[in-house]
Amino acid sequence: MNYGYFNIKTSFIFIVNSMRFSMGLSNRLVNGVVVIDIIEKCAGTLVPLEEAENFIHSVLNLYNKTAGKISFDLSSKPFLNSSGLGQLIMAKDKLMDKGIDLVLINPTERVRSLLDMVGIADFFHIVDKETDLS
What we know:
With 134 residues, the chain is α/β, with parallel strands linked by helices. 30% of the residues lie in helices and 23% in strands. The relative contact order is 0.17.
């Protein structure tokens, strides 16, 4: 598996102005912010564990091409387990290293409680709806 800047695992399919991942994630541009829908296909995680590193590289590629912020719509994610929480923290950390802001859109009450419980809620910019993005 090659993690070079432009080498992306072939399971990812890119479409101009919209990206659809093999694991069912898609994106759109809202108010100049890339919104990535995180759906409940992978119980407890953002993406399958074996796709996590490729997912982050793909998200970084999106930023370079389209927008100044990246957001994850977590409204369809009923919970995160420890692996999902780790993926979220890894995404935030990698984006922060590049000076990119990560915004969480409408995380469920259970996900918000988890972020509060582990003391990292303030680490994330959280909005209640897409229209709050700027």
